[in-house]
Amino acid sequence: xxxxxxxxxxxxxxxxxxxxxxxxxxxxxxxxxxxxxxxxxxxxxxxxxxxxxxxxxxxxxxxxxxxxxxxxxxxxxxxxxxxxxxxxxxxxxxxxxxxxxxxxxxxxxxxxxxxxxxxxxxxxxxxxxxxxxxxxxxxxxxxxxxxxxxxxxxxxxxxxxxxxxxxxxxxxxxxxxxxxxxxxxxxxxxxxxxxxxxxxxxxxxxxxxxxxxxxxxxxxxxxxxxxxxxxxxxxxxxxxxxxxxxxxxxxxxxxxxxxxxxxxxxxxxxxxxxxxxxxxxxxxxxxxxxxxxxxxxxxxxxxxx
Length: 305
Hints:
This protein is of the alpha+beta class. It has three domains: 2-125, no CATH class; 135-251, no CATH class; 253-305, no CATH class. A hairpin with a 2-residue loop joins strand 3 and strand 4. Helix 8 crosses helix 9. The strands form three sheets. It has a three-stranded antiparallel β-sheet, with no helix packed on it. A two-stranded parallel ribbon has the order 1-2. It has a two-stranded antiparallel ribbon with strand order 3-4. 34% of the residues lie in helices and 10% in strands. It is globular.
């Protein structure tokens, strides 16, 4: 758990452990596991036979890995299914790339702690899905990036990493004049609207993306600057934001939900909740903009229980 959190897997995403761990998906890696298997076919044998891989590591975690194989059956597919889940340990990029979520897998001198594969699969995948982008941050126009805090497939800190690349390439002044990063809480990687168990903790974020596109268009065509970049901090691989929308900035509204004037109630019956919006400007704008899930009230709203 500590390792995954430092790697950047959102703590809050454990609300759906089946998806996070790939239990409910055949591949568990959105198909990228099959790509790694095709590109690096000898990895599985190395994992189960060579030192400093989890398949041979004499540790509590190594014991768990070997017990898992014994439980499901020692077949080629099961060997791959288990081995690929720690592939990231053996895909540590150069320290100069500043992928800080992977720093836990380096020694004090910056060298990798574990054996590294001859080919980094990540850059190949990213290049193929982006039209050959090099992610060095040399943008030639205005850009708004929208990223989701429950995303376990493209980790939230990746957006912060790229923002830092753009700032380094442009300089602080040009960066502020051309770049925005908006984080959305309670939204993940998959398409919206959420359904099933995902609907119990996720919101439909498509309206926020549409709003960002409208704001980008106005920024380019009329010079009207969009809302400020979301205020956040990175702590141990996790992206943390203030609860209050006015302090948080960005474009996602928030609400305070209280009962009997407090955040919780014990005993007796509850007749209603008070829902107080925290982003009045956006709530008013929602009347003409497709901000999904946003109330249009400009003051407190009472909800009957």
